[in-house]
Specification:
Layout (H helix, E strand, L loop, with lengths): L31 H8 L14 H11 L4 H10 L7 H7 L4 H14 L3 H8 L4 H12 L7 H5 L4 H4 L11 E7 L4 E6 L2 H10 L4 E6 L2 H11 L3 H21 L7 H17 L2 E8 L4 E7 L2 E8 L1 H14 L4 H7 L1 E5 L11 H6 E10 L2 E10 L14 H11 L4 E6 L6 H9 L9 E5 L10 E4 L7 H12 L6 E4 L5 H12 L3 E6 L4 H10 L4 H7 E13 L5 E2 L3 H9 L10 E2 L13 E12 L2 H8 L4 H8 L6 H10 L5 H7 L4 H4 L4
Parallel strand pairs: 2-3, 10-14, 10-15, 11-12, 11-13, 13-14
Antiparallel strand pairs: 1-2, 4-5, 4-9, 5-6, 7-8, 8-9, 15-18, 16-17
Length: 659
């Protein structure tokens, strides 16, 4: 049996109700609840016990502790009639006045919009820009990523209201008699475009970040899969006709279109990697989505060979070097040739390519890097209040070392960027060494290490020593790879710099052992280390098709961990899935984490050379381990016990005492 329908309430999201015309009117103003939603205030959304009157509702929320006195004051000011300028709105969102002044000075000189300047400087995230635009308009509600993620637009997608290319807006509902349409936009300029395209309809708008709007388009309106299949048919037809005429070349245009559609579709479905390889009898194209592989298409070997030829050409790798070197890496460059026609794709995404020869023939792996994936707000990462507060304290420290630990693909870079965005980029010099720079921040000084370096360890150390002479306050180092880099980072943390970096270890405590094996002095490490955050990513259950997990083993495991009662509702993936999750049972990912906070007792253990197991027991314990975090997500139905087993050993004896 399917779980109860958990799709978003359109009225709560601000997308329901009567659809007015374009002329403004009092009935179009945002409600108090919509304003609170745009401000990011979180409160119970069950309207039954909440008074309808705004003043009484404010008193109710304040009395119940769902908002504090400052939030109540901001809400009261925000719903007052009258116009408001962007500077006032930014103050409501907690932006410091000096940031607003700096941005206004640039606006006066450049005629850019204040919201765009705030985003470019890094004073405001894309989500907060959308919130600010909604609050300034007071007519168009804010649609959050969570609300958008729960929308089901398959029927709207069949109406033909939107074309094959992303226009910057998406329709999300058709009203009653079909004469009115609700549209989500990322900026006021897209409203005009939507009105021009849908001039036959009355429109009602909501505002979301560009990332959210694009995600809705990719999920429901993109035609990249159909374009790939059409290009593939053209290639096969050309090869058949060529074979009949004694020729063996496929159409260059069809090959270009096929590869471009493949890359677009990989981006549309959120793939992190695209694999192209042969089995000996057929070519396989596989995507990795949410950390799990899935076959996208099988193609004839001759088609696979030509697609890899294109990738070799675009990555500027010499064919004769592949056999000798085994594996060669490169990057797809949109600057020249066919790819120059696809510049819109490269604005948001970059593509790293690994090419090689396997036993069954040539292979290619395309790594898809989404520059927007690191624009997530710190509050959206999902840390509990205690851990979030401690991480923010690290960000406010004048000096010290902060480590993010986990395997490749565990979201370490996203967490690092989100933490660094908590630091004032105007008052503080934030400088980084990365390979590559995955997210550009306007006021950070970001340096990219040469990909052609003969010795990466030496290159990292050389860059880092130069950076320490560059007067940084905060240093982001992409990864600790060797003892020289580790020692230099520790020197920086011990000489008045706040240093953030990543380490490939399986747990927070094992990161300390890894650094000691790299030759780091225990006393120096104990004195500089603020904390180690270890993390993994688990797949979220699809909200549309997940089913209740009635397996005794799941209930027993949760009970052993102290997680039982009516509030515990474990779910599992429906084996059949649904169209919303591409029949996988999962869509999206959630963070599982543990924080090793280096307090006085832990510092003494490090100095004494205590074993990793003792440090783990003292500084983390069963209740705050990776396993404990994962089991709590299982208990609330966010993920399945199967996913937790994949990223952490689920030993019943270890699980006891988790809660």
């Amino acid at each position: 049996m399917n779980a109860p329908d958990s799709r978003v309430d359109l009225r709560t999201a601000g997308l329901a109700g009567p659809v007015p015309g374009d002329a403004p009117g009092e009935d179009e103003r945002l409600s108090l609840q919509e304003v609170a939603h745009a401000l990011g205030f979180h409160f119970a959304r069950s309207a039954a016990a909440v008074p309808a009157d705004d003043e009484a509702r404010l008193r109710h929320w304040l009395g119940s502790g769902e908002i504090d006195a400052r939030q109540a004051e901001v809400l009261a000011r925000a719903v007052r009639p009258g116009s408001r300028d962007m500077a006032e709105v930014l103050g409501w969102l907690g932006v410091p006045a000096r940031h607003v002044r700096a941005a206004l000075a640039r606006v006066e000189a450049s005629a850019e919009s204040l919201a765009c300047v705030m985003n470019d400087f890094g004073f405001l995230s894309p989500e907060k820009v959308a919130r600010a635009l909604a609050l300034q308009s007071m007519r168009h509600p804010y649609l959050s990523p969570a609300d958008a993620d729960a929308l089901e637009l398959s029927e709207v997608a069949q109406t033909g209201l939107i074309g094959a290319h992303f226009p910057g807006w998406v329709p999300v509902a058709i009203e009653g008699d079909g004469a009115a349409v609700r549209v989500v936009v990322s900026g006021l300029e897209h409203m005009t475009q939507a009105r021009n395209a849908l001039f036959r309809y009355r429109l009602r708008f909501a505002i979301a970040s560009a990332l959210t709007v694009r995600a809705l388009f990719q999920r429901f309106f993109s035609s990249s899969e159909r374009q790939f299949d059409e290009a593939l048919r053209q290639i096969q037809q050309t090869l058949r006709l060529g074979a009949a005429a004694g020729e063996s070349e496929a159409s260059p245009t069809a090959l270009r279109d096929c590869l471009e559609a493949l890359l677009r579709h990989a981006c549309d479905v959120g793939a992190s990697d695209v694999y192209l390889h042969g089995t000996g009898t057929v070519g396989v194209i596989k995507f990795k989505v949410d950390g799990a592989g899935q076959i996208f298409r099988t193609v004839p070997l001759e088609v696979l060979d030509r697609l890899i030829n294109k990738l070799v050409h675009y990555a500027r790798v010499r064919e004769d070097s592949l056999r000798g070197d085994g594996l060669r890496d490169g990057a797809l460059d949109p600057g020249e040739g066919d790819l120059a026609l696809q510049r819109d794709l490269f604005v948001r995404f970059s593509f790293r390519v690994e090419l090689g020869h396997a036993r069954a023939g040539r292979t290619a792996v395309v790594r898809v890097l989404d520059r927007h994936s690191h624009t997530v707000d710190f509050d959206a990462l999902g840390f509990d209040g205690t851990v979030a507060a401690r991480l923010r304290e690290y960000c406010a420290s004048a000096s010290g070392l902060v480590l993010i630990a986990g395997p490749t693909g565990s979201g370490k870079t996203t967490t690092l960027y989100a933490m660094l965005k908590e630091i004032d980029p105007e008052a503080t010099s934030i400088q980084s060494i990365e390979n590559p720079v995955e997210f550009r921040h306007g006021l950070w000084m970001q340096y990219e290490m040469r990909r052609t370096a003969a010795n990466e360890g030496v290159e990292w150390a050389r860059w880092l020593k130069g950076l320490l002479r560059n007067a940084p306050d905060v240093i982001l180092m992409g990864e600790v790879r060797d003892s020289d880099t580790a020692r230099t980072l520790l020197d920086g943390a011990n000489t008045g710099h706040l240093v953030f970096t990543t380490l490939h270890t399986n747990s927070a405590a094992s990161a300390i052992g890894r650094l000691q094996r790299l030759g780091i002095d225990r006393d120096e490490l104990a004195g500089a280390l603020l904390g180690v955050l270890a993390q993994r990513l688990v797949r979220r259950l699809c909200v549309h098709c997940a089913v209740e997990d009635e397996r005794p083993a799941t209930r027993d495991m949760l009970a052993r961990a102290g997680l039982s009662g009516s509030a515990v509702r474990p779910r599992r993936a429906d084996p059949a899935g649904c169209p919303g999750c591409a029949s996988t049972g999962y869509r999206g990912r959630a963070l599982v984490y543990e924080l090793l906070d280096v307090g006085r007792a832990t510092r003494r253990l490090i100095e004494s050379g205590a074993p990793t197991s003792r440090i783990d027991e003292t500084a983390i314990g069963p209740a705050r381990s990776l396993l404990a975090c994962g089991l709590r997500l299982v208990a609330t139905g966010v993920t399945s016990i199967d996913e937790v087993r994949r990223i952490a050993p689920v030993d019943p004896a270890v699980a006891e005492g988790v809660a």
